[in-house]
Specification:
globular, 2 domains
Length: 102
């Protein structure tokens, strides 16, 4: 896997499944009512509690690239923590790491 990420391998090995997943992802945002910034923040909130560091790093990077502020990203990552989900705190060092890599 050196030099290639999981998504690249998945897309190469199962292109029709990857395409179907991308289409589903687009349709979930019913009529495009959520803008890119919002969908990125929602994704950050979700992946901060699933402990999927690959996905979380991706969405943090994408959010930073489109101008979402670090504090907004941190707030989105910690929202679930305030409801009793106690794994979201791992997102804070990851956000810092991604920010420094850009």
């Amino acid at each position: 896997m050196a030099g290639r990420n999981v998504w690249q391998i998945f897309n190469e090995e199962t292109p029709k499944v990857a395409e179907a997943w991308m289409n589903l992802s687009k349709e979930i945002n019913i009529d495009g009512v959520l803008d890119r910034r919002t969908t990125l923040l929602v994704s950050i909130g979700i992946y901060s509690v699933t402990r999927d560091t690959v996905a979380l790093s991706h969405f943090v990077r994408e959010a930073l690239k489109v101008g979402v502020g670090k504090k907004e990203i941190q707030a989105a990552a910690l929202m679930a923590w305030s409801t009793g989900v106690t794994v979201a705190e791992m997102a804070i060092p990851l956000i810092q790491e991604v920010e420094k890599s850009l």
